[in-house]
């Protein structure tokens, strides 16, 4: 069935601070792609973008940030991906909206992509497309590209005032995008006084960063953190002088020649960085590729506490049951007898099996016992700690969730990192995996509605979903997102504690992102 498409010389056009933009309309959604929100030179702070005369088309995605290494195929059935043209001048965003009336005042949902602080883009996952979320939720959706890895997070502050905040240049890009949104989003039907930041994995970490970035105060009003609370990005106390000195030496340059790093081809810069960074890893020194506490960024609230402004921001925080367990795992798990499942668990947990099985059955009475092999206790543990800290320090509410819906793969695969994103964006139809009649559509309606209503009103809710209470000092009230959604209170604390004691050191480290 053909969809309605409109793009004429005079429509749809919006007036922004820099000039006029022409997008296109498909059905009820207007789309504007590759919109420049800032410009910046390497290692320098972002500046306002240039103005233009006439009408500029916004019909194509903009450049994404160059990556230090090429991604590998292999997980595209779970999260279909695409890769795009790369360039350091990647400060652009994409907008989907159902109205161009400046008085529409629709809630604005601003997406920060995953990939840590080193990789990813605003369009890498097919599930990041914002048209369905905009149409279903009647919201304005914005996705952002910004500088990453050593382009966005490399501390050269010891080498001159112009590099003062190079360690946080990628986050500074995000702030610049939020400022552009604040100044222009009314032209796209959005309400600049009702902006929700949401992001998964590294995107969730960036939401956390924005909470303690004073320049972002007032530019967003709610935050959603999806699988984004870890200990990978503790704020570096060291500065980057030693690392930069090693890089200069590797390049045959003196410290007075530091500006040569600004002009060096990106591939050469990466090669030099990788030649020396292992020395810094071995000694536990600064390696870049993550934010640094300074007078611009107050530091991660996990270690430095929430800023006064952050204490007023309502949060929705959660994880998925299996997180990074992408390996095939147990196949046709529902055909196994309990004795067969116990045999697999004993191979993994030995003498701890009996206690873990007991705790798992109490926490997840409706899940398959083999899921115990894949339960995430790393992100979940830090997420619970973060929620408890927020409750104790902040006046705004915080809500907890866990996405536990089995992926319909190999007879039922535990939910993994990113599995909730198609549901959040109302994009399950963009993945062949999410097509279980009577299940995926219903869960999508519930979960997407909960996120949209949080963005609109500050409380997650949906039809046919139980009331979702905020967490308290005594109780983490967690919405379990599954075939049947339910609120569980303090339900997995003992299980997570025991799994942590049995830790086999299988989690990733920041060093794996840079080597």
Can you walk through the features of this model?
The structure is a single chain. The protein has 515 residues and is of the alpha/beta class. The protein is built from 15 helices and 15 strands. The chain has helices at 131-137, 149-152, 169-184, 202-211, 241-250, 260-263, 266-283, 301-304, 338-349, 353-363, 378-393, 421-424, 440-457, 493-501, 510-514, and strands spanning 5-6, 13-15, 20-22, 24-26, 29-36, 55-57, 92-97, 106-112, 140-144, 190-200, 222-226, 315-320, 398-403, 477-481, 486-489. Strands 1-4-5-7-9-8-10-11-12-13-14-15 form a 12-stranded mixed beta sheet, with helices on both faces. The chain is globular, with a radius of gyration of 23 Å. The protein starts with a strand and ends with a helix. The model has no long low-confidence stretch (mean pLDDT 94).
Strand and helix layout:
Blueprint: E1 5-6, E2 13-15, E3 20-22, E4 24-26, E5 29-36, E6 55-57, E7 92-97, E8 106-112, H1 131-137, E9 140-144, H2 149-152, H3 169-184, E10 190-200, H4 202-211, E11 222-226, H5 241-250, H6 260-263, H7 266-283, H8 301-304, E12 315-320, H9 338-349, H10 353-363, H11 378-393, E13 398-403, H12 421-424, H13 440-457, E14 477-481, E15 486-489, H14 493-501, H15 510-514
Parallel strand pairs: 3-6, 8-9, 8-10, 10-11, 11-12, 12-13, 13-14
Antiparallel strand pairs: 1-4, 2-3, 4-5, 5-7, 7-9, 14-15
Helix pairs in contact: 5-7, 10-14
